[in-house]
Design a protein that fits this description.
This protein has five helices and ten strands; from the N terminus they run ααββββββαββααββ. By secondary structure, it is α+β, with helices and mostly antiparallel strands. The strands form three sheets. Strands 1-8-3-6 form a four-stranded antiparallel β-sheet. Strands 2-7-4-5 form a four-stranded antiparallel β-sheet, with no helix packed on it. The longest helix is centred in the last third of the chain and has 18 residues.
Length: 152
């Protein structure tokens, strides 16, 4: 479990897509993440709420469910979630609940919006792959431009 800023940077460097970020960008972004402890059954967010940011699981498990309570994903350490809502309309399209005690990293929405275009392309590609796997449609807003774009 990362305990220092340098440990956190090393952790993120081992997690895709952050492993492709240049060192200077990764160091800057690592300093923006907030650590959030979770307890089993904690509701991280509910469907339709404003999206607080991008989450990366440090430790523990998280279940993502649809608005009809169908299980969408079962996630564990090094998985991320929340990107899709941030890139769409900044409203959560799912609910997230902790399945065990653990810890999350949160990149707040304001800091997410400040990511550079290269980092956003990597994250958009990751989200598009995940949506294809789950057969869910995706439409995203280019962060910082206000333009709508279809993510490949």
């Amino acid at each position: 479990m990362p305990s220092s800023a340098d440990d956190l940077r090393r952790f993120l460097a081992s997690v895709h897509p952050y492993d492709s970020f240049p060192d200077a960008d990764l160091t800057r972004i690592a300093g923006q993440f907030q650590r959030i402890p979770t307890r089993r059954d904690d509701v991280i967010y509910r469907y339709g709420e404003p999206c607080a940011g991008l989450y990366v699981i440090l430790d523990g498990e998280v279940q993502i469910t649809s608005d009809s309570d169908e299980i969408v994903s079962h996630l564990s350490a090094r998985n991320s979630f929340g990107e899709r809502g941030l890139m769409r309309d900044e409203i959560t399209g799912t609910s997230a609940t902790a399945l065990s005690d653990g810890a999350l990293l949160l990149l707040p929405a304001d800091d997410f919006r400040c990511l550079g275009p290269d980092q956003m392309r990597v994250i958009q590609y990751q989200v598009a792959l995940r949506c294809r796997f789950h057969r869910a449609p995706i439409g995203g807003r280019q962060i910082g431009t206000g333009h709508q774009t279809e993510v490949p």
